[in-house]
């Protein structure tokens, strides 16, 4: 039996990492081009399921390959303490360490003090690395971190640059610090609004969206072939369209179409396998992406998008939302702005809005409004 090559699991690297080449190239150039290169300070955002964690782990792997030390963390209160604990370890080089989350807030003064402590530990660690090498802090789920601690890391980045300049070494030989944050879009908005982290406005910002369908089609053909089955271009093209280019959906469709063919005892993935697999993929996407997003919104926001879902796959008029919700124009404007800010919806022309999250409207119709 040929093992299923598709991996629709959070954070699991897919068999082919596609559609993220420009981010990877920017990061590699940042490491290779010496102290102060733009790719060493990066903010990666995108909605759930778009592959932020997978990409972050790929960047960690690339840094390790270049001899950089890596510390990774799923952010939350205590971020600076956990990074400091990693650097205090007795290992000569921290190659990769991961920490779990906790939650809460921290005072600005406490965060600054921890940042100063971290500065000394970072510089001590950098002394143990070779010329031109450095330390990468890879911070996932950054929207869960204390804004004060993120601000402290931004200050730390500037301070370490200055400390390395003071060594008098050429940029190519200076030890470096790289910071890569990954999180939901609202994280970047909140972060960049903070006066204490204006420096981060100069970071490279990369928003992960859909992958081009031709790339998805080609990846299906190659992945299936490498794993011992066959899918022709027409079947792979259908699967790509069913996936909508969403990274998580790409893996779901691939996984279930493969399973359908294997259960038939076939070595060839056919159109019926794609169609059957798509049904299972949609159900799983609903539960993993759409449901948590929907129930994570405030009640007025849910009412707003429920009114949008009635229109199926076409943009919704703001006037219709006001009428369906029996609310005022100011109410609709307020929650329109909040949903756009959280990247749940977007403007679709004058007086129009539409969903940005795949199948969210369909989820609401199928699982929320079906009984009405």
Automatic annotation (TrEMBL):
Which residues belong to any copy of the AAA+ ATPase domain? 38-209
Domain of life where this protein originates: Bacteria
Recorded protein name is AAA+ ATPase domain-containing protein
The scientific name of the source species is: Collinsella aerofaciens
